[in-house]
Amino acid sequence: HLSGWMEIFQIILSCPVCQDIFKDPVLLPCSHSFCNVCVQQWWRTKQTRVCPVCKAVSPRSNIPPRNLVLKNLCEAFLLEVESGVVCRLHTERLKLYCVDHQTPVCIVCRDSSQHRNHTFTPVNEAAEFHRNGLLKLKAKWEKTDEDIKNQAGETERKVREEFRVLRTFLQEEENVRIAALKQEEIGSHHNHATLEISYCTS
């Protein structure tokens, strides 16, 4: 059974005909409210437009006005249910966390056969546990990202160093070959000059 103010609200905000939360509620002259669809369907089965609760007769010429206050209350109640603050099945506060199903549950859910012999923890403790898990996972991702950046930086440094060494080697090789060519050219000129001198003195 439901307990607390949520039970009271559900009873107050339930249509006497469909037993569900009011949808587009209308107000009869006797002050009872119903879903517009419910009361119209009810009247189709009756010879007179009687109230489903107190049997008071409403004139056929009377169009039931919308109960806007009740409509707003129902919308606020459903909004809280849909927000996850209360259980959709029992409209009780979600105070517990089912470890087996990994979902928030209410006290009524805990005692149901669906969660029999399951392990529960306060929902705030479960939220803190999952929050810490997400923070650790986030830190791990950030560390991995930082490691990748550091590795990429180190690889770039090594590549630049290797190319620097290669450029230095090629420059030195170029200088050696140019020097050798110059030396060969000087030697060639020297031999040619020596031959000319020998020819002139012979």
Automatic annotation (TrEMBL):
Record-annotated RING-type domain positions: 15-55
Alphabetical list of Pfam families matching this protein: zf-B_box, zf-C3HC4
Start and end residues of each B box-type domain: 82-123
Cross-referenced InterPro entries: TRIM/RBCC, Znf_B-box, Znf_C3HC4_RING-type, Znf_RING, Znf_RING/FYVE/PHD, Znf_RING_CS
PROSITE patterns: ZF_BBOX, ZF_RING_1, ZF_RING_2
One GO MF term: zinc ion binding
Keywords assigned by UniProt, alphabetized: Metal-binding, Zinc, Zinc-finger
Protein family membership: Belongs to the TRIM/RBCC family.
UniProt-recorded name of the protein: RING-type domain-containing protein
Protein species of origin: Seriola dumerili (Greater amberjack)
